[in-house]
Amino acid sequence: MLYCNPQKMFELRGIKKPLPFMVKNGFSYNVAWRYFHGQVTRADLEHIETLCLQLNCTPNDLLEWHPAKDVPQNPSHPLNALRPKTDTQTITQLLSDFPTDKIEELQKAILELKNTTDK
Predict the structure, then answer these.
(1) C-alpha neighbours within 13 Å on the C-beta side of residue 27
(2) Residue 88 pLDDT > 70, yes or no?
(3) Domain, as residue range, for 116
(4) For residues 42 and 30, is the Cβ–Cβ distance under 8 A?
(5) Mean pLDDT of 96-114
(6) What is the CATH number of the domain that holds 75?
């Protein structure tokens, strides 16, 4: 089943209070709560577009696929790209014990990577 999981994008964008952020951007509190807690069973495309615009992402960044037990495994199926990664850490977790003498090098690498994607 496909799920909308905007939590990882909120973390990546440094949004510490996602529900007020969503309400500020036009969601009712009830709808925001359901999106944030993965309890949306029928996603409104207008909501997905609003999230994508506000979080600077694509729908694929918001969606996760958890196949049902009875779905045949096909490793080459494109939906596999939407399976959640189990070994990922948030940026904050990665930086929590990052050596301070390497921060400048990290900043340069991030800017360099950003510049290559902006072109």
Answers:
(1) 24
(2) no
(3) 89-119
(4) no
(5) 87
(6) 1.10.260
Residues near 9 by beta carbon (within 8 Å), at least 6 away in sequence: 51, 55, 57, 61, 62
- Do 34 and 9 sit in the same domain of this protein? yes
Block residue for tokens 């036009």: 26
Q: Are residues 111 and 71 in the same domain?
A: no
Q: Which residues contact 80 (CB under 8 A, 6 or more apart)?
A: 65, 74
95 with 80, same domain? Answer: no
Q: Are 31 and 47 in contact (CB under 8 A)?
A: yes
| Size of the chain, expressed as the number of residues it contains | 119
Same structural domain, 80 and 28? yes
Residue carrying structure tokens 């199926």: 77
How many domains does one find in the chain?
2
pLDDT of residue 9: 92
Residues 15-74 pLDDT 10s: 999 999 999 999 999 999 999 998 898 889 999 999 999 999 999 999 999 898 888 888
